[in-house]
Amino acid sequence: MNTQKYLERIGLGDAELAADQGSLRLLQRSHLLTIPFENLDIHWKRPIVLDIDRFFDKIVVEKRGGFCYELNGLFNQLLLSLGFITKLVSARVFHADGTIGPEFDHAAIIVTIGEDEFLADVGFGDFTAEPLRFVLDQEQHDANGVFTIRRFDDEYLEVAKRDGESWHGNYLFSETARDLSEFSAMCDFQQYSPESHFTKGKLCSIMTETGRKTLTDRAYVVTTCGNRTETTVSSNEDFEKSLMREFGICRLQLG
Questions:
Q1: What is the average pLDDT value for the chain, to the nearest integer?
Q2: By the number of CB atoms within 10 A of the CB, which of 9, 71, 218, 220 ranks highest?
Q3: At 97, is the pLDDT very low, low, confident or very high (cuts 50, 70, 90)?
Q4: 3-198: CATH, from 3.10.129.10, 3.30.470.10, 3.30.2140.20, 3.40.50.150
């Protein structure tokens, strides 16, 4: 992997970086502001294979995005190349109906810096702008909301976001280190199964300095300082024009 090209991709080609907390925060935020969360290959019939070189070509060379295994898989490699101590961990996502996904449903990263640990994640869509300090039962204020990490049971920890007076679970995770290859079966499920929410419609979404912009088959939604605007997407042609205009991604440029 060419670390310099990756840093240039996220706007940090000239940054002075070290394996410290400030650099980790800068890296995650910059990544989220420049690389979208998207599932387009699933709908364009381009197989997603868990391979760092393929991730690099797609995300850095082609200037695309990806979903969690790609985004966090490659980001983890970037952190390692910069001297951070990391491990990939498996997470189980809370669904809208209250059910919880299976093991390897999501990939996240735990980063160790001195005596401290952080949960880093650039592959969960609308989530934290910066890493969460790995401490239990403390409210952590982030640009994207208030979050906490708490014990779920003997095996899992839970990341939750405050919603008014209550907390909404994002996902469960354990501290067991995982190899990227262990996510292969769930990666195949996510991209091929009719039961996967990723196969039900196209999605491209990115954090902005003032909120978020998201494009789906049905709508283009922009949130700016808490204000939401929505524009209907009426056709596939409309979708692809919006994709190019707002995200710089053109299907015709891909092999």
A1: 95
A2: 71
A3: confident
A4: 3.30.2140.20
